[in-house]
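Budget justification, computational time. The allocation requested in the original proposal was used primarily to generate structure tokens for proteins on the priority list. As evidence of use, we reproduce two of the resulting records. The first is shown immediately below.
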Amino acid sequence: MPKLTKRVVDALRSEAKDYFVWDTQIAGFGLRVMPSGAKTYQAQYRKGGRTRRVSIGRHGKITVDEARKLAKEVMGQVAKGENPAEDISQHRKAPTVAALCERFFLDHVKQRCKASTQGEYRRAINLFINPAIGNFKLVDVERKDIAELHHKFRDKPYQANRTLGVLSKMFNLAEIWGLRPDGSNPCRHVPKYREQKRERYLRQHELQRLGQVLSEVEQDGSETPYIVAAFRLLILTGCRLGEIQTLQWQFITDSGMELPDTKTGARLIPLPQAARRVLSALPQLVDNPYVIAGKLPGQFATDLQHPWRRIREQAGIPDVRIHDLRHTYASNAVSSGMPIQMVGRLLGHTQLQTTMRYAHLADDPVRKAAEENAARLDALVGMPDSSQRLRIVR
């Protein structure tokens, strides 16, 4: 066996079958010559009674000296009790991030999340995660990879942060499923971007104009009575869009709307007389259990966004989203002096902190009450006007 040098390797010719040429300087270091003419450097050793072989690199891509150095490193790992060939084999079989995404969606999201949340997760996976790191081996993902992905969408801070949240949940589950070591979540310590919370409340004149437009589109038939009723119910109840959109007639009782499944679980929502009048004006279709009937038989109206865009343009409020109707309901309740805890119960919030975003609106009735109270006291013991004050002449 010759010592492997560039001249020796270049002189080797391919044969009908692949064959090995071993180096005389380092035991286990050799070259594999394939029938195709490809030549790859090898490191061979025995482990557990078996001969194991590691492919180091292809001749031409690395030099003989570089291959010899790498072979020494492999043999050093073997001497420490490691098994490089098995590690490489396991790494080759390791799942990719894309595979984790699918398991995460099927075993977790589909089982535990609402349909709307499932759509958000699927969108994050398909549009942001898989294109960036889907081909990465799960065990190879590092914090810098997550930070780079997060930074890529810095111009969309809300989407960047939501994607980071999805990734963090996925990698937590990867640890539970034994796919990564405990405490190795690469999303840890990746700071989120500051988000500008957008809270839009309709003013009194805007609500009046919106009400006029809803009546107009219902009368001229440009929107169905079910679409118009949906927006009126959103305004009068403060419900989430999905709660009204999927509302069934059987859920409406003397107690209110008894919804078996909402974002926060089963929920009883009060149904004021104004909302009941909206419902009583709607025709109930025999073959459709839904209040907000759609175009397809037996289905609810799946698209309220396009009708809302038409209505808001006509009402002169193009920046108002459907969810802002819920904000408007809450802001009116707080501004009228309703306790913040009661507002939270009306909205179906499970945490007071969620409702506290409206707390600053409670200052208005307090300020008004302070003014009125001070005015009554001032009438009794008030300070004279500046024009009536005595002037001291020196």
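The second record produced under the same allocation is shown here.
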Amino acid sequence: MSTEKLWNRNFILITVGNGLLFVNFHMLVPTIAMYAASLGSSGFELGLIASIFALSAIIVRFFTDALVDRLGKKRCLFLGLTTSLVATAAYSFFPFFQGLLVARILHGFGFGLSTTFAAALAVEVIPPEHRGEGVGYFGLGNTISMGSAPAIGVAVFSAFSPVVLFSLAATASAIAIVLFRLAHVPERPVVRKEKEHIPLYNRIFEAGTFTPASTCFIFGFVYASVNTYLPLMAAEAGISYAGLFFVFGTVFVLVSRIFGGKLYDRRGPIFVMLPGVIVYAISIVMICTAHSSAYLLSASIFYGLGSGLLMPAIMTWLFNSVPPARRSNASATYYNMLDLGTFLGIILLGTLAGDMGYISIYYIVLAVMVLYILYVLWAWKSGRMVDDRVA
């Protein structure tokens, strides 16, 4: 067995750099709408600014193959990071809707490239026998920043001028660039037949990854219901301190990473995926029946453990389903499926909530979770939950 260590210099640099990439993103998620509103943007314009970022990130990932062919993974990563940095700085220089919209589109392009290739480079420095564990720890930067950066962003925006907020977010991107530059990752040559045609559906999800990609899509749908509508559900149910749900949840995401990745590496995806979807389903049951702050915070324990097990397991499964030269495409598949599922969940559940109320939509989410459990069992029993780990 290989004795190569997981926590090597390159892995630490890439993991911290990825965390700062998400600090930039999460600081601006709540504040960019606040900034646009302060400029006098209409409700429609606020919705457009919020949605155009995710759409542009999805679109740019369709061109992963062409970009890798011409630039290689590392140059694609730095193109994305530099674009994110420039777009973040541009928010300050164009204080009107049209300029903000263009900057938001550019930021989406940069974020789409950065997240895709940061993950693709991370898996290159993770020893194959530690891949599940390594991918779990790699994603901790996103988890920690999700729990802290939005609050920091709102506090900075409320206390200082927007220029200070954007400067702080840009600084996170700049430091991320430096850290990724210091990491030494071998560039694998791209082997492809000349004039190879790639079908449209394989630009959405990489060939051979339909089963893990579909589990990622379903997860994104359910994830959107909690992250977007839980505070509104709590208000409808008369439950206070709903914001603490995400703080507690983040703690238990961290707990899950201690054992989830190691379990994946030793036993395979089903031993993480099945407990993950069951625990996640328990959290949805508790959200549906929540009647007090204490009960809702108890649900966050299962929410944190479930999402903490599922997200890195799905990403590892995707990486292990493709040849090494196709890992950037597997990374693009992961983020595209997650974003598409999230986008559909926000739109569909938000529309239904207008007629049914926010508590009722979680019963629909619970039905989806039951189907999710059955789908994971089917994938395992049918032999589709394979894990062909390649160095």
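A brief technical remark on that second record: The longest helix spans residues 9-38.
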